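pasting for ref
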Amino acid sequence: MTQEAERRPARVVVADDQTVVREGIVMLLGLLPGIEVVGAAGDGEEAVRLVTELAPDVVLMDLRMPRCDGAEATRRIRAQHPGTQVVVLTTYADDDSLFPALAAGARGYLTKDADGDEIVRAVHSVLSGEAGLSPSIQRRLLERLADPRPAAPAAAPDGLTMRETEVLVLIADGLSNQEIGRRLHVSTATVKTHINNLFTKAGIKDRAQAVRYAYEKGLVRPPAG
């Protein structure tokens, strides 16, 4: 950041589809030093439009919004307006929310239990070229980097998502639904949903077929022997 940019407040747009939450965030930011709220958006489409009109320094971006979700809005903002940084501010810290947002170009990621000081630090961190991540998100990233799970292929077969492919690989490794849930830090009900989805997409009827499918598609390799 230039010295001039350091002296002036960071110009921020808030994007959240819940009116009460959005207004609460705007009110909080108005009390924080070094922050100037220049606009508020109710969905991703409006967020992209406001960035085009206002050229803010940072967008505080919710993820799950109608018309255009936060990850897609982040991708478009970073592609069209590289001078604007994005800090995600969301309720969700699961892998399916975190990693697509970071892949889309978000430089910061906070959950909505963040206090004002954390938000200020994240905003100014991303403007200084650093990552603005909450401690819990940093721990989650370190856990993921240390996780020995095999990586999902870049192009999963039959339209499987990255998470569905991960679940399939773990099924092939012989893990139960409960064990998969613990490994992926999600509930057993979420695991069952992923299994139902991948079974439907791949035309699989049971776990035995799932194992065979995983080997046929090269998602796992037979043990050497």
